[in-house]
């Protein structure tokens, strides 16, 4: 099976969407949940407006990128714009405080076995 190249959009369109910026704030990873704090306003860039509409409920950055059909880096730049203006809130995933606080692998195996038996 041959893989088709990923279409990242026309470079000139992406340049226009990001205002020529190529670096995004590193605070957004793929699973950061984004929530709109306001609705779109007249005259707003269409991609910003679409993000605000999509994020009425928490949505992961990677899901936003997929829905808009834009590369994740471009979406992260757009999210940075919205975060700077207070139009969105970013909810970062919580990391486990330590390996010791994670469930025992034997317990997880038992749960998996139980689920398969259902």
List keywords for this structure.
118 residues; mainly alpha; 5 helices; 3 strands; DUF742; DUF742 domain-containing protein
Can you describe what's shown?
The protein has 118 residues and is mainly alpha-helical. Helix content is 42%, strand content 8%. It has a three-stranded antiparallel β-sheet with strand order 2-1-3. The chain has five helices and three strands. It starts with 10 loop residues before the first helix and ends with a helix.
Strand order of the largest sheet: 2-1-3
Supply Rg. Answer: 19 Å
Average pLDDT: 82
Structural class: mainly alpha
User: What is the percent of helical residues?
Assistant: 40-55%
Number of continuous helical runs: 5
Largest sheet: 3 strands, antiparallel
Unreliable runs: none
Total strand segments: 3
Percent strand: 5-15%
Helix and strand string, N-terminal first?
A: HEHEHHEH
Q: Give the end-to-end Cα distance, rounded to a whole number of Å.
A: 36 Å
Protein name: DUF742 domain-containing protein
Secondary structure layout plus pairing:
Layout: H1 11-17, E1 33-36, H2 46-54, E2 59-60, H3 61-68, H4 72-84, E3 88-91, H5 105-117
Antiparallel strand pairs: 1-2, 1-3
Helix pairs in contact: 3-4
């Amino acid at each position: 099976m041959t893989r088709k190249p990923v279409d990242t959009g026309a470079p000139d369109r992406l340049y226009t969407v990001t205002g020529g910026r190529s670096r995004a704030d590193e605070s957004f990873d793929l699973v950061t949940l984004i929530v709109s704090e306001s609705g779109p306003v007249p005259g707003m860039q269409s991609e910003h407006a679409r993000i605000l509409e999509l994020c009425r409920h928490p949505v992961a950055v990677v899901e936003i990128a997929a829905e808009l059909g834009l590369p994740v880096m471009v979406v992260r730049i757009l999210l940075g714009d919205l975060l700077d203006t207070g139009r969105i809130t970013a909810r970062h995933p919580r990391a486990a405080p330590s390996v010791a606080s994670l469930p025992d692998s034997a317990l997880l195996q038992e749960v998996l076995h139980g689920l398969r038996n259902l």
